[in-house]
Design goal:
Blueprint: E1 4-6, H1 16-31, E2 37-39, H2 49-53, E3 67-70, E4 73-78, H3 79-88, H4 99-102, E5 111-113, H5 126-139, E6 159-165, H6 169-180, E7 187-194, H7 200-204, E8 212-217, H8 223-233, E9 238-241, E10 247-248, H9 252-262, E11 268-279, E12 283-291, H10 292-296, H11 303-306, E13 317-319, H12 320-325, H13 341-349, E14 356-367, H14 372-375, H15 380-387
Parallel strand pairs: 1-2, 3-5, 6-7, 6-9, 7-8, 11-14
Antiparallel strand pairs: 2-4, 3-4, 9-13, 10-14, 11-12, 11-13
Helix pairs in contact: 1-3
Length: 390
């Protein structure tokens, strides 16, 4: 008889509610298991029986050990510890498949690491997910933490992170968690709910952190108008855009603000970003890294030639004074005022200058066919003609 039982429930679904449902299914399955140890991994390759048989459970395990890992991937869990931890878990994830990694013990003495095999340490996407998990798990600043200490907002935050949201309840939690994972604490997060019809506003207000401020308006007026409203409320000298379905690397605001500090004439800083594809079954899938600095190299001749496909520079941290000097975003409520607003404000800001470039992946952008920008890519030429940028 094997000394462990294997979890059979599979991690499908993108939405936060699917992750919660997945957790509940795991709890139900574990509660019916009599074995002391559970085989449960967040690495999809370990779902194959051949892979599982090649990683036997160690014969001698110290009593303090709660989890056994191979190449950084959690494999075996002590049932009592796992059940108690799952019951308390209430964080936000980009997909259910990352749940085991979010449960790894913060105390390294509770984890046993097996000798590595020839398998890769983990999937490529985990390179960008694990730092956020570990940072927010250790700091205890995850969403809906009852009774958690609320860090005080700096008297004068250096960076104001602006986020305009509309019907983003399923992805917003992970975006906010990436802000809480920042290596620098000199920030404030301003979230503007632009007439959402789902529970986006409730999700935005679920965080016990005074550095997060939430504004709302009952009617959807478009991202540009909401961004101007948030700009008026911002206290930082730098402005960083973050979409409610994207997320930041943990050192994003530190490296971008340092770059602007070191270049006092710079109006905007950018860097590289990870490009992801949203899927319903497996969450966001990593595709490639994109160098915004390389993209900008073709901007010098004309906006039309540079952005013929409507590709914005990502990430975008602005000097607030420069952003105010050009009047902020384009205030239009029609369709052409709701798309390409990022390209428009960047082009006006950089009309006579170049962006400061940081050679690091600082932002993660999730693309999906049903988004407003992707549905209206064919309108880019008409937008250029309307704005006189062709």
């Amino acid at each position: 008889m094997k000394p462990y039982a294997r979890i059979r429930t599979q991690p499908f679904g993108y939405r936060d509610i699917d992750t919660t449902a997945y957790r509940e299914h795991i709890i139900q399955e574990i509660s019916q298991i009599d074995h002391e140890w559970i085989l449960w991994s967040g690495t999809l390759s370990f779902s194959h029986k051949s892979a599982q048989h090649s990683i036997p459970i160690p014969p001698h395990i110290p009593d303090r050990i709660a989890c056994i890992c191979m190449n950084g991937a959690p494999l075996y869990w002590r049932k009592t510890w796992l059940l108690a931890t799952l019951t308390r878990w209430d964080n936000r994830l980009p997909a259910a498949k990352f749940l085991p990694y979010d449960l790894l013990p913060a105390d390294p003495s509770l984890t046993m690491h097996l000798d590595p095999t020839q398998n890769p340490p983990y999937q490529k996407d985990l390179e960008y997910i694990l730092p956020i998990l570990s940072a927010t798990r250790m700091r205890g600043n995850t969403a809906s933490s009852k009774g958690a200490l609320s860090p005080e907002i700096p008297p004068q935050p250096v960076i104001s992170i602006l986020m305009s949201i509309h019907n983003m309840k399923d992805t917003l939690g992970w975006s906010i968690r990436s802000v809480l994972a920042q290596s620098s604490d000199k920030w404030e997060l301003l979230i503007g709910d632009d007439g959402s019809e789902d529970d986006s506003l409730e999700e935005a207000c679920a965080y016990l952190d005074s550095r997060i401020r939430v504004l709302s308006q009952s009617r959807n007026r478009g991202k540009a108008i909401m961004m101007n409203r948030l700009l008026f409320e911002a206290k930082g000298r730098y402005i960083l855009e973050l979409d409610g379905d994207d997320w930041l690397a943990p050192d994003a605001i530190e490296l971008l603000s340092d770059a602007l500090d070191q270049n006092p004439d710079g109006r905007m800083a950018t860097g590289r970003y990870g490009c992801w594809e949203r899927t319903r079954q497996f969450g966001p899938l990593w595709r490639r890294n994109v160098d915004s600095g390389h993209l900008y190299s073709s901007w010098s001749a004309s906006l039309n030639r540079t952005t013929q496909h409507g590709h914005p520079l990502v990430p975008r941290m602005y000097r607030k004074s420069s952003l105010i000097a050009i009047g902020g975003w384009w205030n239009r409520e029609d369709l052409l005022g709701r798309i390409f607003e990022d390209i428009d404000v960047t082009a006006r800001l950089l009309k006579h200058s170049s962006p400061v470039q940081v050679d690091a992946v600082l932002y993660h952008r999730v693309l999906y066919g049903s988004s407003t920008s992707q549905r209206n890519r064919s309108l880019f030429e008409a937008w250029c003609q309307l704005t006189g940028k062709s």
